[in-house]
Write a structure and sequence with these properties.
The protein has about 120 residues and is an alpha/beta fold. It has a single domain, classed as Cupredoxins -  blue copper proteins (Immunoglobulin-like, Sandwich). The protein has a 4-stranded mixed beta sheet. Strands 3-8-7-5 form a 4-stranded mixed beta sheet, with no helix packed on it. The longest helix is centred in the N-terminal third of the chain and has 19 residues. The protein is globular and about 40 Å long. The protein contains 2 helices and 8 strands. It is about 20% helix and about 35% strand. A hairpin with a 2-residue loop joins strand 1 and strand 2.
């Protein structure tokens, strides 16, 4: 009976420790980045990320915009206010993009490993 009580107390103590232990950031959060679209600009205009990062563009402007890579490697539909578009980047390189609705709006994603 005493050993069961000790085992139960130990299990409850472990459960309490797990419940209050701080959580590490998720892998998803560590491998994501954001670009804001506002006032007919992409911010930041150039974003440097590691391979495996997913970039999400969010249109905070009152006008529709899009995201289109200059060589057609990726493209979004027209994004209305508060719409988002996400693209994963696995290969190192530079990815120039623009808004197909307003071609003077440009940006760049630079994908490079930490050791480069």
């Amino acid at each position: 009976m005493i050993s069961k009580a000790i085992s139960l107390a130990g299990a409850l103590g472990l459960a309490a420790l797990v419940a209050v232990a701080p959580r590490a950031p998720s892998a998803d959060a560590a491998n994501s980045a954001a670009v804001q679209i506002d006032n007919f600009h992409y911010t930041p205009a150039t974003l440097v990320v590691a391979p495996g990062t997913t970039v999400t563009w969010k249109n905070d402007d009152d006008s529709p915009h899009s995201v289109r890579e200059k060589d057609g490697k990726f493209k979004s539909a027209a994004l209305d206010t508060d719409d988002t578009f996400s693209q994963a980047f696995s290969a190192p390189g530079e990815y120039d993009y623009f808004c197909s609705i307003h071609p003077y709006m440009t940006g760049k994603i630079v994908v490079k490993s930490a050791n480069r």
